[in-house]
Design brief:
The protein has 6 helices and 5 strands, in the order H-E-E-H-H-E-H-E-H-E-H. The protein is of the alpha/beta class. The two termini are 27 Å apart.
Length: 143
């Protein structure tokens, strides 16, 4: 999760929101990324999708079974779908949307709801390094 935090810091330094993600297999980083949807102009360049693309390239497969993903923030619906399609079995989340009510609107669906609806079995753990990730949002104003 420390590497996902570093990716989040890289995103913020580049003018984007502090969202970062890292894909790990057998205790080795196989993919990493941070959001560049604002600075790069591609709406799909969310941290999780960038990290998934990197992992798929590095492993030369689109089946990431046996991998886990560490996300500085709760994945959106688009990113959750990518995680499910890649067959990732474990998701570790730092900050949830509920932790940032002044910046992010609440959602009726969370990644757990989407996983249940899709039939994808997944282990989800929340709150990792939350105390280190939340300060990255202190100076951000709602856009």
């Amino acid at each position: 999760m420390l590497l996902a935090l570093e990716e989040a810091k890289n995103a913020k330094a580049g003018g984007d929101w502090p969202f970062g993600a890292v894909v790990v297999k057998d205790d080795k980083v196989v993919g990493k990324g941070h959001v560049t949807d604002k600075s790069g102009g591609d709406v799909t360049d969310h941290a999780e999708l960038v990290a998934l693309r990197d992992a798929c390239r590095n492993l030369k497969t689109n089946n990431l079974e046996g991998c886990e993903i560490y996300c500085s923030n709760e994945p959106c619906m688009m990113c959750a779908a990518g995680i499910f399609q890649a067959n990732i079995g474990e998701v570790y989340i730092g900050v949830s949307r509920d932790d940032l009510p002044r910046l992010l609107r609440p959602r009726k669906l969370r990644i757990e709801d989407l996983a249940q609806d899709s039939g994808h079995e997944i282990k989800i753990q929340r709150g990792l390094l939350k105390d280190k990730i939340l300060p990255l949002f202190e100076d951000i104003k709602k856009k």
